[in-house]
Design brief:
The chain is α+β, with helices and mostly antiparallel strands. 22% of the residues lie in helices and 35% in strands. The N and C termini lie far apart (31 Å). InterPro entries: Idi_bact, IsopentenylPP_isomerase_typ1, NUDIX_hydrolase-like_dom_sf, NUDIX_hydrolase_dom. Keywords: Cytoplasm, Isomerase, Isoprene biosynthesis, Magnesium, Manganese, Metal-binding.
């Protein structure tokens, strides 16, 4: 069972993101909404994937009110650090805001992707830092403005589901899972 958190009053679309070049170097800033207008501006982001003792991953179904890829299944949480903000700090804050959780996070890789949400026309064009952590028994407290529900899934089952019904998952989840599993293996 999960609890819900009180929704924040911040307009997340107005917050600044850090624009980056093709090598991931900071080159400026703009509001979230501007970075996600077609064709999309390359900017820094992060994706967190939490594991439990059984090796399962915690997925979230994005809230219906999300401006990009609503109601699709994604990694535990994701977001954007403010310009100059350390990625691990921003990821810890978002993990608490979206799910009411706190745990140590380790960056295990980075990748670049671009995807257009056919439902909203908005674009993800991100230099995405992948962070992993462990969660053992803590119960998420969902912010309904961010998360519809959560589920623990074995990575093999997740891969099979993503192959059979890819339209149920965000376009970045496959890369996040791959990088997280490799990163955990070498830790």
């Amino acid at each position: 069972m999960t609890e819900t958190l009180t929704a924040p009053l911040t307009d997340r679309e107005a917050l600044p993101v850090e624009l980056v070049d093709a090598a991931g170097r900071a080159v400026g800033a703009c509001p979230v909404a501007e970075a996600h207008r077609a064709p999309g501006l390359l900017h820094r982001a992060f994706s967190v994937l939490l594991f439990d003792d059984e090796g399962r991953v915690l997925l979230q179904q994005r809230a219906a009110v999300k401006t990009r890829f609503p109601l699709l299944w994604a990694n535990t949480c994701c977001g954007h650090p403010a310009p100059g903000e350390p990625v691990d700090v921003a990821a810890g804050v978002r993990l608490d805001e979206e799910l009411g959780l706190a745990t140590a996070l380790t960056e295990v890789g980075v990748f670049r992707y671009q995807a257009t949400d056919p439902a909203t026309g908005r674009v993800e064009h991100e230099w995405d830092h992948v962070l992993v952590g462990m969660l053992n028994g803590e119960r998420p407290r969902l912010d309904p403005a961010e998360v519809a529900t959560v589920a623990w899934v074995a990575p093999d089952q997740l891969r099979a589901r993503m192959e059979s019904v890819p339209g149920d998952y965000t376009p970045w989840l496959g890369d996040v899972l791959r990088i997280a599993l490799v990163g955990r293996a070498v830790q």
